[in-house]
Amino acid sequence: MTQIDPVRVEVIRNALVTAAEEMSLTIWRTARSTVVREILDYSTAVFDAGGHNVAQSARIPVHLNSMSDCLRHILDHAIPLEQWGDGDVVVTNDPYSGGQHLHDIQTFRAVFLDGQRIGIVGTLCHHVDIGGGTAGSYLATATEVFQEGIRIPPLYLARRGELNTGVFEMLLHNVRQPDETRGDLKAQIAALGIGERAVARIARKYGSAPLAAAMAQIQDGSERMVRAALLALPDGESTFTEFVDDDGQSESPIRLCVTVRKQGDGITLDFEGSSAQVPGPVNNTRAMTASAAYFALLAALGGDIPANSGCYRAVTLVLPEGSVVDAQFPAPVASRMVVNHRIATAVFGALAQVMPARIPAAYYAISYVYALSTTRTDGRRQVYFDIEVGGWGGHAGGDGASALSCGLHNNTNAPIEMVEARYPVTFLRYGLLPDSGGPGAHRGGLGLVREWRLDAEHGSFGTSFERFRIPPYGLAGGRPGSLSRTTLTRADGTTENLRSKVSGVPLRRGDVVTIETSGGGGHGDPAARDPSAIDADLALGLVTPAGAARDYGFAQENPA
């Protein structure tokens, strides 16, 4: 294949990234649901003609690292490339066809120029409801994927530019908010058209053959950068074990064990010793585990490595079949982020033994997903879906960030004013949670508290939470961050603590839900924390006087 000069390759690479960003903006501007438009739980990417990721938007790594796996599975096992025509749209959400969980509907469209396939564009959106046994489709009691919603095998959503209305309507008839699902799916299809035109425009400018050569060189370049970063690390082996609270159906913790073996310019992440797949819906398939492992490794290596399929060539994953990191059909997976985040912190924990200056203590490590189902006055169902975050771990260079979304899921804040305008809830508290950051020479970031009251006559509430029993770990002598908690205060004043993973909890008008998320772990001996930093924390209300005395043995000379 013809070699393209490096300057031209970089120009084309940025043009492809811009194409992915144009697709992202299209979804943002045209989607209907708050989970897509406000929380930004979606991703877009550009692939070469063989289905390998070459460019992506600045969205969600847990999606982007696995979209190429999904596309390759479709091409190898369902719809071969030679069957893709101009204007065809292929759709799936099947976790056992390379997908994530059922909420994440992926769509792909091939790009043609003068009858030649030159690339593929793809979108992934988290849909607020996908059917199944509970509103929001996070059924805590699920024991099979069949209970979690409608499962879409790889199939054509459109042929030659014509929407398959039968398939489209079938999907809408199986969800609780068809208007929002219709809008989000149409946003995905529109974004594919934007991406198709952008990639074709690049090919017309530079030529199809030079574009193909540049796509190959882009991936080769990322591979070289990853291998160079690995070469700079010492060879050796390190092991770390993380524990997840439970699967929501028992009290048994879930073991995640990873051994990192680095040799030369290659690295192996071996998850042998992890728990077997569990009955509850927190299991990960291979594609899910790979996405978290790749994220953790690339985040640790840092630098300006362009993210694409070339990054993964230096990485070998060993995943025991039938384990919680390589669950087999028909294991339920809706709450896979419970384990997915902890795969990342397990890899971080192992890498901290190799590169301690770069790795922070554990972050909150869970997507705090919750859903409230109510009924409108006109009788239609309504689902309020949200995702909360917590604190990052302290690190060798400073304190952890407070209430900031981790890069693995990279979500944004849903403004409470917007939520109150659309749903029958009133927010009573939303802010940082004092004393939640793990003590250390560098304190962990703070978690948050989010409290709201139901204003409808009745509702049904569900959560997919974690960190109720096992807190974020500290490093280098730092102490763990806080635990999470969900409290339900009934309108009559009675209070109960909910389990971390629940569904179908009945609510009545006036009931108040209080969500407290974990702070990050501390880094370094708390006794080594600068007293002026403790003074600043006290002045800002990040630490209480009682917390400063307990965690640091610190008492203000002039507490007034």
The count of DSSP E runs of length 2 or more, i.e. the number of strands, is: 20
Strand content range: 15-25%
**Shape summary:** globular
Biggest sheet strand line-up: 2-1-5-4-3-6-7
Task: Give the helix level as a range of percent.
Answer: 25-40%
Unreliable stretches, pLDDT < 50, 5 or more residues? Answer: none
| Distance between the amino and carboxyl termini | 73 Å
Largest sheet: 7 strands, antiparallel
Whole-number radius of gyration? 24 Å
Number of helices: 11
Question: Which structural class matches the secondary elements?
Answer: alpha+beta
Mean pLDDT: 95
What does this protein structure show overall?
The chain is of the alpha+beta class and 560 residues long. Helix content is 29%, strand content 23%. The protein contains eleven helices and 20 strands. The strands form four sheets. The chain has a seven-stranded antiparallel β-sheet. Strands 14-15-20-17-18 form a five-stranded antiparallel β-sheet. It has a four-stranded mixed β-sheet with strand order 8-9-10-11. Helix 1 (6-30) packs across helix 6, helix 3 (61-77) crosses helix 7 (286-301) and helix 5 crosses helix 6. The mean pLDDT is 95.
